[in-house]
Amino acid sequence: MTEDDLRRLIARVKSGRLSRRGFVKRVAAVGLTAPMATQILAIAGAAPAASQSVPTYRPTRRGGGGSLKILYWQAATLLNPHFATGTTNQDGSRVFYEPLAGWAGDGTLHAILAAEIPSIENGGLAADGKSVTWKLKRGVRWHDGQPFTADDVVFNWEYARNPATATVTSGSYRDVNVVKVDDFTVRVEFQQASPFWADAFVGSQGMIIPKHLFQAHNGANSRDAPANLRPVGTSAYRFVSFTPGDTIRAELNPNYHMDNRPYFDTLEIKGGGDATSAARAVMQTADYDYAWNLAVEDEILKRLEAVGRGKVNIVEGGGIEFMMLNAADPTTEVDGERAVPGSRHPAFSDPAVRQAMALLVDRNSLEQFIYGRGGPAVANFLLNPPRFRSPNMRWEFNVQKANEVLDAAGWVRGRDNIRAKNGVRLRFVYQTSVNTPRQRTQAIIKQAATRAGIDLELKSVTASVFFSSDVANPDTFTKFYADVQMYTTTMPQADPQRFMNQFVSWEMSGKANNWQGRNIVRWKSDEYDAAFRAAEGELDPIKRAALFIQMNDLVVGSNHVIPLVGRPTVSGSLNNLRHVLSGWDNTLWLLGDWYRET
Amino acid sequence: MTQYLIRRLLIAIPSLLGISVVLFTVLALAPGDPFEELATNPAVPPEVRAALRASLGIDDPVHIRYFRWLAAMLQGNWGFSFVSRVDVDQLILQRLPTTLLVIGASQILALAIALPIGVYAATRPYSIFDQIANTLAFIGFSLPTFFTGLLMILLFSIYLDWLPFVYRANIEATGWRFYWEHLRQTIMPVLVLGLFQGAAWTRFVRSAVLDVIRLDHVTTARAKGLPEGRITIRHVVRNAMIPVVTLVALQMPAVFGGAIVTEQIFRVPGIGSLLITAVLANDTPVIMAVTFVFACLVIFFNLLADVLYGWLDPRISYR
Fold it and tell me: A456 to chain B nearest CA, in Å?
């Protein structure tokens, strides 16, 4: 099915000549999945905007729900969203602060402080893609009674982009211009046509802090703002107390801007401890209602579910555990640097070796014996939202085929059973961080590789070193002074532009940029670069999705990047708790909609 | 005496300086970065991380950072947490009450177990009571707290469902219910720590009392026809307590330092858990402050033990 056919079908749906179900059936016949089909309709404007993305809220009055108790095994340490490093701090801030819109579980936007989601139809999106106009909800008040207006929104842009303030969110704000149109309208202007416009003021990067409490602390004195520890937001729950690294307590906000919300009278978020006992406290003893991020063996979770009090929630996002085969040469040192961008890896420059490596990964075993429901085997790098998922990639575990490929390419086994060609031996250093599932994965892959005449030397580095940006340390993942490495990367937004820039040639990590470039595998493809450049400016959502699918196919097809398992977020909750979770936004992104079924 | 005290306090200064240099160098040499989590997040450009590091002064050379820290410490400024963005003393003070309550209670429990059992066992060496007490004490200090803690959680929280295993510092209740809830959640951590410490001290008290009970002055007291109870209390225990007091005094800094493992298991928001999260997050100022304050306490209580020694045992004089 070509793009034109798709367009014709969508046009028929729009004019009412074809039912949506009929559309889904037709595209399913050519291999597109149903979620992908509905998403195509949604982005093409032929589906009711974001209507099914959030479950219906049933309580008919505010409050009366008692207390909601949430357990995090890592605790929030600060409550200013612009300084929130890591998801726990973002979640803690999200209890009190709200963005203009959040990302729902299916990767569509859900209006929170915005009156509506901007679109071309409602005039929110400029036709040239150079600006987006947000209409703010009226009648919203901060917890201290002050009105929420466009001034607050503009202030957040000034605050976040101020270099002296040194915010974590500055990446989303420094390249845009924000203009107040009137008291309840703001316009975000971009330097170039930007198909991805929902970054500033959206989701975890977009929580809005009140101007009247922070304007005196915009700059080097940002750390002195009392509201850093005593947040005053617009959300459904207002602040009671906070102990950094331990507990957040909040209570119902009687003036919340959404009807009948919230349901719970008080809220407590307790931090610390370990994931397994957090799972027990919810699913076995029911002391808590919800436990965040249960990095626990699936076997244990299944046993706890069998108790019958709670359930495990698996929320899909873009997180992926993957392997990369170095495109540069990690052994030769040039001018104090190894794996120099542009150099060639002696063995991996042969596509046959890369193909063999991909064939040696038994993803089925990884899913079955290591990750369980928390790590489904995948063939793509770009997994979600479904509209960006490539239907073209397949994975296979086949040691015999790997042997045949290597034989055909002239890699012959030596006396020690390791293959070699022209003096290059297939002996690789395979590094990752210290983490039980990763070490077990390494062992499984090493075993298969040995059968194909490839010797893998396993190396594991403490996570705090591996993931650090320490320029002096040779063992960081960005230096990649090894042949193979493996880790998880996450996708913070439902748009893949930021995610897929990790394979463009101008992002190559190296000494020149203090190893801060995003392209760690040092892979270079002109075709990929061109597709990425095109996607950056492509305003047609369908063409853009096709470009990202092409990028995925290019990088996965090269076998320099071998996707292993998806990493959905796993959490536990009591059976009667009705929560709204999303893999594209913070866990507590729509906390006001949580309620208990009685 | 005053002269002795002054001399000891003066000696303490170079040792504290030495400790601080060692701590600071070790922390500076340790790999890691407080903004590690940002490194894998594609939404955060690397320049942001660099700006953050610069704003907290992490990129400066070690010696400059050390002197800056020292100057601030001398002015009573304990530093500024990278991770929480608050002053470290505030973080520590927030957690001190819980630590004092839980660890303090466990030390009292340990003493309440060790003193009577140790003394009674020593007055009847190799009796059935002594054998049982000895065996239990051995078991008690051979089992690590993380094991007994988990065992207790399994038994009292999961199978019997009597006690909560998540410690909550803020309990929203008043009157009797408040105390009752607090008691319920404190029992397990206090028992775990108290029994472990108590077992070790029981052995120590027993041997200290055994040493004294064979001495001549005890025999003399018996020959005078004094009642046995009075001999034990007046003539034996008082003398035997000298080394025990030193031991207990030296244990006191731990009351402020918290118990890292037990606090982690029961989610007790004490100093120990603050230290461990700071270590995991590479939050150097917090680690520095907690360990340095701990070092000060150790030196102070050492001095206190020495002074107490002389008061208990007049044979010791200070020169």
Answer: 25
Judged by CB atoms closer than 8 Å, whether chains meet at A274 and B264 is answered as yes
3-state secondary structure A383-420: CCCHHHCCCCCCCCCCHHHHHHHHHHCCCEECCCCCEE
Task: Give the predicted TM-score (pTM) of the model.
Answer: 0.85
ipTM over 0.90 threshold: no
Contacts of A516 in chain B (CB under 8 A): 46, 49-50
Report how far residue B200's alpha carbon sits from residue B196's, in angstroms, rounded to the nearest whole number.
7
**B38: nearest CB among A168, A501, A514:** A168
Tell me the C-alpha distance between A591 and A190, whole Å: 31
pLDDT tens by residue, chain B, 319 residues: 788 888 888 988 899 999 999 998 888 887 767 776 666 666 667 777 777 777 777 778 888 888 888 888 888 888 888 888 888 888 888 888 888 888 889 999 999 999 999 999 998 888 999 999 999 999 988 988 889 999 999 999 888 888 888 888 877 777 888 888 888 889 999 999 999 989 989 999 999 999 888 889 888 988 988 888 888 888 888 888 888 888 888 888 877 766 888 888 888 888 888 888 888 888 888 999 888 888 888 888 888 888 887 777 777 776 6
> From the CA of A223, how many Å to the nearest CA of chain B?
6
Per the CB < 8 Å rule, is B170 touching A241?
yes
Cα–Cα distance for residue pair A103/A584, rounded to 1 Å: 6
Helices (DSSP H) in A174-251: which residue ranges?
Answer: 211-214
Contact between chains at A287 and B168 (C-beta distance less than 8 A): no
Q: Which one of A67, A103, A168 makes the best mutation probe of the B interface by having the most chain B beta carbons within 10 Å?
A: A168
C-beta atoms of A468 and B39 within 8 A = yes
Closest residue in A to B46 (Cα) is A516
Chain B residues 82-101 within an 8 A CB cutoff of chain A:
83-86, 91, 94-95
Whether A565 contacts A377, CB under 8 Å = yes
How far is C-alpha A81 from the geometric centre of its chain's CA atoms? 17
Amino acid letter for position A522:
R
